[in-house]
Hints:
The complex is a heterotetramer, with two copies of chain A and two copies of chain C. Chain A is α+β, with helices and mostly antiparallel strands. Chain A is built from six helices and three strands. Chain A has one domain (3-145): Sufe protein. Chain: A, CATH 3.90.1010.10. Chain A has helices spanning 2-17, 67-80, 85-89, 93-100, 106-127, 133-141, and strands spanning 30-36, 41-49, 56-64. In chain A, helix 1 packs across helix 2, helix 2 (67-80) packs across helix 4 (93-100) and helix 2 (67-80) packs across helix 5. Helix content of chain C is 39%, strand content 17%. Chain C has two domains: 11-32 and 304-412, Aspartate Aminotransferase, domain 1, CATH 3.90.1150; 47-301, 3-Layer(aba) Sandwich (Aspartate Aminotransferase, domain 2), CATH 3.40.640. In chain C, helix 3 crosses helix 10 (287-303), helix 4 (100-115) runs parallel beside helix 5 and helix 11 runs parallel beside helix 14 (396-413). Chain C is α/β, with parallel strands linked by helices. Chain C contains 14 helices and 17 strands. In chain C, helix 5 (134-143) links the parallel strand 5 and strand 6. Chain C starts with 10 loop residues before the first helix and ends with a helix. Classes of the chains: A alpha+beta, C alpha/beta. Chains in contact: A-C, A-D, B-C, B-D, C-D. Chain A binds chain D through residues 1, 4-5, 8-9, 13, 38-40, 65-68, 108, 111, and chain D through 26-27, 350-354, 357-358, 361, 369-370, 383-384, 412-413. Bound molecules: pyridoxal-5'-phosphate (2 copies).
Amino acid sequence: MSELDQLYREVILDHYRNPRGHGALEPHDAHAEGQNPLCGDEVSIFVRFADDGETIDEIGFEGRGCAISQAATSMLTELVKGRKAEEVAVLPKDELLEEIGIPLTPIRLKCAILGLGVLKVALHRAKGTPLPEEWRTLENELRLADD
Amino acid sequence: MSELDQLYREVILDHYRNPRGHGALEPHDAHAEGQNPLCGDEVSIFVRFADDGETIDEIGFEGRGCAISQAATSMLTELVKGRKAEEVAVLPKDELLEEIGIPLTPIRLKCAILGLGVLKVALHRAKGTPLPEEWRTLENELRLADD
Amino acid sequence: MAVTPATKLDARRLRADFPVFDELVNGKPVAFLDSAASTQKPRQVLDAMREFYEHSYANVHRGVYTLAERATAGYEGAREKVRAYVNAPSSREVIFTRGATEALNLVAYAWGLDNLGPGDVVVITELEHHSNFVPWQFIAKKTGAEFAHIPIDDLGELQLDALDEIATRGNVKVVANNLVSNTLGTVNPVEKLATWAHEQGAIMVVDAAQAAPHRKIDVQALGCDFLAFSSHKLCGPSGVGALWGRRELLEEMQPFNFGGEMIRSVALDRTSWNELPYKFEAGTPAIAEAYGFGVAIDYVSEIGLDAIEAHEHELVVQAMDALAEIPGLRIFGPPAERRTGIVSFELENVHPHDVAQILDWEGVAVRAGHHCTQPLMTRLGVAATTRASFYLYSLPEEVDRLVAGLLKVRKTFA
Amino acid sequence: MAVTPATKLDARRLRADFPVFDELVNGKPVAFLDSAASTQKPRQVLDAMREFYEHSYANVHRGVYTLAERATAGYEGAREKVRAYVNAPSSREVIFTRGATEALNLVAYAWGLDNLGPGDVVVITELEHHSNFVPWQFIAKKTGAEFAHIPIDDLGELQLDALDEIATRGNVKVVANNLVSNTLGTVNPVEKLATWAHEQGAIMVVDAAQAAPHRKIDVQALGCDFLAFSSHKLCGPSGVGALWGRRELLEEMQPFNFGGEMIRSVALDRTSWNELPYKFEAGTPAIAEAYGFGVAIDYVSEIGLDAIEAHEHELVVQAMDALAEIPGLRIFGPPAERRTGIVSFELENVHPHDVAQILDWEGVAVRAGHHCTQPLMTRLGVAATTRASFYLYSLPEEVDRLVAGLLKVRKTFA
Ligand SMILES: Cc1ncc(COP(=O)(O)O)c(C=O)c1O
Ligand SMILES: Cc1ncc(COP(=O)(O)O)c(C=O)c1O
């Protein structure tokens, strides 16, 4: 599996070591935290909107945990910056998984989508819209709603 | 298995249909009752000693249940009549089982030895001696001690 | 039953799947008429479990490595199969247990201990299996709730007239009933009971141990709140079964067993629970057995539950007709139209254990006893019955052998 | 360990018994170093279970016919094997459960609910597995008893000095401890604790899940009152385990689960319990699994527990020596002399799940996580560790592959 290995090193490790958008944003327009009890991964995400109140102008995160969870959250910040909150709130997880690019077993999948789940909770909370069913399940598993 | 079948019919059924020593004895010198919860078999045994206070002079039983339990108890009364209480109190169960003569699976074995267990309890009680360990276990299983 | 299955099952062909039928018992091929106690297992299930142990076995959950991922996928795949089998809304509502008994205890403890008290009424029926009777009797006593039963009539059918009176005794909080009686084969009016239970504000607990292997189950159509059944009565391995429960109820409940996998976090002073269904699956589960259970569900589903039901119905009609001809034989329970493939009977002046013993010498395996339904035995006025029960692999000539055997018993004891 | 086994085991030869070792994971033969979570199964066990299902399967107890007799004999034969394996006085004291977890819950519920109350103290240790921790925490809370723990030192060894203080807190009623820690491999001083427990008038509950597969167990020599372990960690099938309990205690206890087989008589108003051990085995048990458990006990016993212990000791010495050379790697727990074949460690700056993931790509299966010992993790100041664990089939070159894999992990994350 040396290709996979390669990818792990190159894509994931780069983001793991040099997370983009690292750090809390104060003040912020949207915020949420989440944990993956399995790995003990923790992610906290902060969003600031542009003047239109819709576009994600700045996004920052803090966290700790396995390389997958932290790297995926870092990649996520790149993926969503400049996009509309409405659009990101329903972003299919496959879009992020494609970006990550390595095959993930169900157990590691949860690490990978932790950040996305937290971001969705943050956006839906800020907009007062309900989290879609699929993520409500994850909300429980990943403790997305815990503050 | 037609030999077994034969035996079932001949030995067991004869005792089942025409139980020897059937009926309660009043007055009596020793008495006990027992049940086999498995088949719902019930046996109640009464003993009268000869003048020496040792020899089983008369023995009677009442009961209901499967053919094995009732026939075995009937055979038992024939086996022990005229013998000393002391001796019968330690009678090995194999002696009775030989008499019965058909192979018994563990589950039917309990039917077969119910009467013997009840008789032992009656004799030990009358003599004030403790029931041997092996039978104490059965005492529980077969509810020998219930009055 | 007005069921016309798409495809009739071919029991003779299916038997080839069951290695046990090559077995001779007392020199005769075994006529296994005790499937209500536990069924035999097809090669498909045994092969799949073996495969699983040889290529995909490890402890489930939390394992990052390949074997653990495979094992987890197999185990969770089985959960999805159980969900589909009973048409549950979500596989998170499916909990693996040792069997129906543990499933029912789980509900009695984890729901009952916190929701019952003096003034409340727990309602069971006179024909419950001990597994859906004694746990409720215990929890009712422990919590001070009243323990009431729905009586049956002489054919073994529930007397629903009694419900009004029962409702006057307090707050009815639980109604527990088997969908099919393991002793009489009666198909019970669970939908009606569920409606009544909900009118009372009670939960409806269904013991489907004898139903799930033999007829289509739809928990949503039944309208129940919990439903329990076992793998071993459904061509699957022993040691596993399932509880389905309504999510809202499961989420409110405390866990039953405590240990590995069912917690979210443990500290010396405080512990919080994992999400459903793991909250209720403490410790290493019956991993390969759950997997085998799933394969058994596939096996049975492929044959088709309508076909199984129709096949058993034919056999029970044949059996009841033939048994009715035997002098001194009394059949318990309702007519064939209102029962599954189960017939309990007594033969005048012969103890059921003697019946079963002599039948065994003829290679016919039936069960004798109270079938874990002592209150029902009391109601029927007997200590025990002899019971024959059928499954997808049962043949008409096995019924003939049963009848011939019984005639021999009669002759022996004449 | 000064054990000189009569015959040294030949792991390479034994591996031929385990079909899974023919398996390639990610193109490489699997180095299965997660036996503490669950072991692989030898052909002997799988063959025997298959045989059992094909020739001797039926529901156990009460059945009069031949298949039921065979099944019962197989099931009860396994009980006797468990008895002999732990040197229990009587097989009536051996109860089959789903595993160690259920066994410990049984004691916590069935003994604890009736014997604990305010003023009483339940004592566990800081290195308990959740299965011997959370049930006691729950029952202590439910009954108002105090929940106290014996702390450990930095090497993970119990600080028995704390006992005096604990004794001042109330009536010590239960002491519960694992004989071997599943995270650290520590062999705990259970005999001493049992003596102390009895001085306090308490019962001693031993979790032998990690001990029974790896070293000789003698419940009489340990002086304990209850002992629990699982089949699946001992070359046997999943879904079954055993509880041994002292007869006097078991006899006084109420049952835990209720249902078929565990009752003597049931009536609408009153129910009485069956004798030991059936009182505690409600419902259809894990029949074929218990039988397979017995065969696994035979398998392990024939190899010899002294030989197994010595073999694992060699591997753990090799592993600890090699791991100590890896920069940034920290091993938890006591020196090899005071542990079984388990090594937990952390690698600086690399999350254990990433370690396990990369090792899996090398075909090395290890476990990463809290190993169901969160209080211990808290004490060690980590969220998770990586754990390698050995069994009778483990090879020195698998330790080499672990070490090579870890060097690769370090390079990847450098
Ligand atoms: C020390 C210890 N106790 C208890 C258990 C629980 O065993 P099981 O999951 O088989 O019930 C385990 C295994 O996970 C263990 O390692
Ligand atoms: C109606 C009914 N309920 C419950 C059970 C208990 O099932 P198990 O013994 O598999 O737990 C049975 C089977 O014995 C049954 O027939």
